[in-house]
Amino acid sequence: AQRRVRLAEENCLARAIYFEARSESELGQLAVAKVILNRVRDPNYPNTICGVVYQGSDRRNSCQFSFACDGLPDDVKYPGAWAQSKRIAERALDGDKMVKVMSAATHYHADYVTPKWSRSMKRLIKIGRHVFYSDT
Description:
Blueprint: H1 2-21, H2 26-41, H3 49-53, H4 79-93, E1 107-110, E2 122-127, E3 130-134
Antiparallel strand pairs: 1-3, 2-3
């Protein structure tokens, strides 16, 4: 039972990495994974990876991660990128220390948008096309 839960959670994390950051560097992909894992530990968010990734997905364009509620099919079209996303998810779940600066990150956005919420948060770092923030 624990193995099934771990595999399901790993799959949700890999899907988020794939659809949100597959064109990013390994560091950028790990940073996106770290945001999700940080939210799991934060009492303001669901306490599972799948819960965090799909929070708000029942309403179009109301979710935390755009791929989860954009109305498009979540079909994996790039097997190599999917395999990489799965490897990154596994590393993140195993506690990869490569993203120490991300220990407090709970939010990010693409660098070509400026969401209202970003003004009230502490900007941490820009990695690739994503800007990462902490709410503390």
